[in-house]
Amino acid sequence: VKVKIPFGNKYLDAIFSVPEKKPTYGVILTHGAGGDMNFPHLVSLAAYLASHGVLCLRFTCKGLNVAYRSKAFKAVVGYLKLSDDYKLSGVFLAGRSMGSRAAASVIRQLSQGDDDDDDGFIQGLVCLSYPLHRPKLQSKLRDEDLLLISCPVLFVSGSADEMCEKQLLEGVVSKMKAPKKIHWVDKANHGMAVKGRTTNDVMEEINVQVFSWLRENVQLQHK
């Protein structure tokens, strides 16, 4: 289902992947610095989640500024929260690369915000290929938002990601207060390409991981 989400004086293009049964949980998903919501990995994940009963709303926001992307993400969260078509108990924010930075930033802002937005609607964060540092610039880590988040976080990263060195991410994760999990895709680069494996094969691995983590976290909150 294609929708246009109001954002300032513009609209963001978005697509709902809707499960057959009425969903109680959703995932809001966005792309990295290049590409848009039709990036194959996002399409694959959205279809997988919808087929397993999770609503997925993916959107395009072309800005290359994280603050701008975060504002857009916030607008989408607000839109879904007030949606009459889908009454959800909660959502997980998910993004690929720069999109995951924007998602982390939104969660930090809402949890520290004075606007009382932290009512438990946002259940967790999924970071696909989180860009922890620029290639070859390991001294400057983009970890400030991660260290201030308290909701559950899943990282799915390639062990050969040139923007997220394995030891560095493990170091950051060990300092995080939030419940967290890392799934390493063996030998995958930042674009999740692995020599000798098809994209579909890699995506299947990622999709299964993301869904099982979502399911665990939904169950934890309802015990």
Automatic annotation (TrEMBL):
Residues 27-207 form the KANL3/Tex30 alpha/beta hydrolase-like domain. InterPro entries: AB_hydrolase_fold (IPR029058), KANL3/Tex30_Abhydrolase (IPR046879), NSL3/Tex30 (IPR026555). It comes from the Eukaryota. Pfam families: Abhydrolase_11 (PF20408). This is TEX30 protein. It comes from Oxylabes madagascariensis. The lineage of its organism: Eukaryota, Metazoa, Chordata, Craniata, Vertebrata.
